[in-house]
């Protein structure tokens, strides 16, 4: 029964012909596979040399080609730089800033249209997959000559061999990336693992050869990095990022889980004399990020950056030496102009729901004071050092809203002149109603003063500054101010407290029964070793003191009385110690006398 279909002679002849054709096809395919596989490798090598102007060369260990399935597998691939060609290009001024090296054990190419490649010189590929490749990128500061000898596009260079290159998808999975930055005095090396890359719609033809909307001829390249971590050279900081994602189609960079964690303060301050910083940011979004400019020159050009839910802490180094150099370097308008070597242009920088804390140890009571601002929302505008941008607008602004010690509404706005030789800036702000005792976590450890009562109605200030001087007005309105002056164990100094509350401080502003509040005009000369934020604080404080009735005469009197009180306290301590020693000596002599008498009786 099984052979009834072949009972006619024509059926047998047909089957034999089909089998023969199939056999011939298989034999031809096997021959083509073995013949064209090395040809494919040679073709790739030639095209890499040609398209890179001999800068890059590629070696392929083995090639498997399956014509019927339209697949090719390449093994032991290594893309490397010809250093002699690179050095020659460097002398000619045509060397690129970035160099690439690639090593991969296996590359799989699928859904190739080989007939089109053979008949039309069009290379169409459905997918290219590279598993666990190792990539090394070296960044050098070269200035390519604009008048190059060969300004042809990549398509123009390969058009005689290939009229079109079209790849649907390119996948690089589990990439190991090493990035070497040669722009500084020492080579900075960064290593990345758990890096994935996906490129879509790669097209090289006459229409896309100058298409600026594509990156490396791809409609979109999406790069994802997971669980990146590194440690500072001195081992005092650990830096971690949960994920980084960049899409070239949307020009959007997203960073999540950024964490800069220092060592504990004892180890840190015993190792270095710098202040200790802590930083955490839940997420950061860069919109309209010019990734090509950053890749080529390391310039940062972003339309808008938004940082969400962050925490920043500064712990002043209690083992640090007193700064004697000019701290102008801490001024934002100085840093933008000089500290940032690359070109910078950020139209808008937003901080959403941040908290900032400052800590400082007073070694007299061995206690740490703390000032904190939370629920901070800030917008910076026009952060740039680009000359063409500064010609249009030379002022950078910052508008900050926050809560002082988590209680009082505090707003402040800054204007920074980015071109002025005097580094001029101005700021004005407002602190809303708050109990003065909320400042005790700072005042008690750092000033040995405790506010026992008092409420701020408002604090207003408007200051204009240069790197050397600050002038403006400060208004502090409050009621029922009372303080305790403390010893280092936080016990009250009764005499000096009475003096401060009775003769020095004004308990209200305006005075009880008065209508005109005290308004302070400030003229503060900045000591060269004062950093930016200390200058801002000392300027405002210089205006707050007169509003509280503390003029220079009262302050001198208070300081003298406080010094006298401290000296008297020290003298009392010495008298007590002397009296205690005399009593101990007396007891010792009596005990010795008693012992001698007992020995005489025994003798």
In short:
By secondary structure, the chain is of the alpha+beta class. It is built from 12 helices and 21 strands. Keywords: Membrane, Transmembrane, Transmembrane helix.
What characteristics describe this protein?
603 residues; alpha+beta; 21-stranded mixed beta sheet; 21 strands; 43% strand; elongated; transmembrane helix; membrane; transmembrane
For the record, give the distance between the C-alpha atoms at the N and C termini, rounded to a whole number: 140 Å
Distinct helical segment count: 12
Overall residue-averaged pLDDT value: 82
Beta-strand share of residues: 35-45%
The helix-and-strand class reads: alpha+beta
| Extended strand count | 21
Rg, nearest Å:
38 Å
Q: Give the uncertain stretches in residue-range form.
A: 10-36
User: The biggest beta sheet, please?
Assistant: 21 strands, mixed
> Which geometry do the CA atoms define?
elongated
Helix percentage:
25-40%
Structure description:
It is a single chain. This protein is α+β, with helices and mostly antiparallel strands. The protein has a domain at 22-143 and 155-227. 30% of the residues lie in helices and 43% in strands. It is built from twelve helices and 21 strands. It has a 21-stranded mixed β-sheet that branches. It is elongated and about 120 Å long. The relative contact order is 0.04.
